[in-house]
Amino acid sequence: MLTDSLSKAIAELEEQQVVELVKERLENGVSPLEIVSSLQKGMAEVGRLFETGKYFLSELVMCGEIMKDSMDILEPYLSGDSGSHKGNIVIGTVKGDIHDLGKNIVVMLLKGAGYNVIDLGVDVPKEKFVEAIKESNASLVGMSVLLTACQESLKDAIEAIRAEGLDAKVVIGGNYVDEVVKKHVGADYCAKTAGDGLKIADEIFS
User: Fold this and answer.
1) Could you tell me the fold of the domain covering 5-78?
2) Which residues pair with residue 142 across a beta bridge?
3) 73, 87, 151, 174: which is deepest, by most CB within 10 A?
4) How high is the mean pLDDT of the chain?
5) Are the C-beta atoms of 35 and 74 separated by less than 8 Å?
6) CATH class (in words) of the domain with range 88-205
7) CA 160/CA 40 separation, integer angstroms
8) Per-residue model confidence as pLDDT tens digits over 83-128
9) CA 137 – CA 121 distance, rounded (Å)
10) Can you give the residue ranges of every domain in the chain?
11) Is pLDDT of 82 > 60?
12) What HEC string does 116-134 produce?
């Protein structure tokens, strides 16, 4: 049961209310990351409703649009003003999966925190991950997945990176990703929220 009014508003697809609450919280000095966290909780609920058949694809798409509008408002508050990059990070949604909303939020947060992010987009084959790590000499790779059916794509991509002898750390993220999935696919970290992704990056590059 969602108790936060913003999480609830996005879960109920109340577009106008979400925008008003986001603006109101910013005005009241609530941290942008905290607002993103509330939005993500609501999105997770939409994902759950979709999986249980209470919501359909149209609701999922609408939730994505509301989230995009919210992130447009939040972006100026999230973008840090750092002249130099803290490090290179490669990120992409794995092969077979075309969801990019969660990934895009992470990209925005990482860029805002001063990282140079190489965003490979969606449906990314393992070869592309390997190539991008070699080219950018990235120390961290983020792999996003929303569909449970694409778990093997995660595993294949991580195995390909290891087979090339690349020592980049791999963080996986997605609404069902947990320690069990992390172990199964051989990742170094798993992130439940975009904020977790940022914390992991700061830990690795500190």
Assistant:
1) 1.10.1240
2) 91, 171
3) 174
4) 90
5) yes
6) alpha beta
7) 31
8) 557 899 999 999 999 888 788 888 877 877 778 899 999 999 999 9
9) 18
10) 5-78, 88-205
11) no
12) EEEECCCCECHHHHHHHHH
Tokens 């840090």 identify what position? 80
Place of tokens 């000095």: 29
Structure tokens at 172: 């996986």
| Element of type H or E holding 93 | strand 88-93
Q: Which residue has the higher pLDDT, 135 or 43?
A: 135
DSSP string, the chain: ---SHHHHHHHTT-HHHHHHHHHHHHHTT--HHHHHHHHHHHHHHHHHHHHTTSS-HHHHHHHHHHHHHHHHHHHHHH----SS---EEEEEEBTT----HHHHHHHHHHHHTT-EEEE--SSB-HHHHHHHHHHHT-SEEEEE---GGGHHHHHHHHHHHHHTT---EEEEE-TT--HHHHHHHT-SEEESSHHHHHHHHHHHH-
